[in-house]
Amino acid sequence: MHTIHPANFCRIDLKEEDNMKRHIATYSAIVLACSWALLGPAPTQAAADNIEPVTWSNSQKSSAWAEELLGQVVTYQTLAEKSLIPGNFEAYVEQMRKVRELYRTGNRRATYDGVNQLMVMLEARVGGIDAHSADALWDFCYRVTPDEYHARDRHIRAKGADEVKKHEDFMRDMEERASMAF
């Protein structure tokens, strides 16, 4: 029979303890590396990707308003082609294509003229379109198009003369205060 000396137990325990420490350190490093890879640094969003400008009106308008409006006109054209609504919307589609291109090139004055020409066409019901379609497109155009591209009479029709005058007085007052501040 062999007698096992107590010192041998300690030696075995120390070796096992060293192995265990090494394994724990290795596994901890692997777990930390995997969790960092999975969770990663906190995602950040680029500030310049989708900043909408601040407007004085009570609702923000998309920078893709010309695309939205063209899409709406094309929808009405499709409905007319399927004989679901009366009229021919081809002139409106062409006008919106022009407006979209003018807006993309940065020609503000021509964009203003183009939007107002579209609204005149809707008011005149060019192409034999029905009143409901014309009014719905007019309202959509007014809602999505930035205010700077509408003639003053369009604002009066949409908001009323009193509201437009109140807004103009407010803006004039703000400009006067700003000029006195310097």
Q: What does the secondary structure layout of this molecule look like, with pairings?
A:
Layout: H1 6-39, H2 65-81, H3 90-105, H4 108-124, H5 131-144, H6 152-159, H7 161-181
Helix pairs in contact: 2-3, 2-5, 3-4, 4-5, 6-7
Fraction of residues in helix: 55-70%
Give me the secondary-structure category. Answer: mainly alpha
Ends distance: 104 Å
Radius of gyration, rounded? 34 Å
- Overall structural domain count: 2
| Largest pleated sheet | none
What is the mean predicted local confidence, pLDDT? 78
| Low-confidence segments | 42-58
Number of helices: 7
Order of helices and strands: HHHHHHH
Question: What spatial form do the alpha-carbon principal axes imply?
Answer: elongated
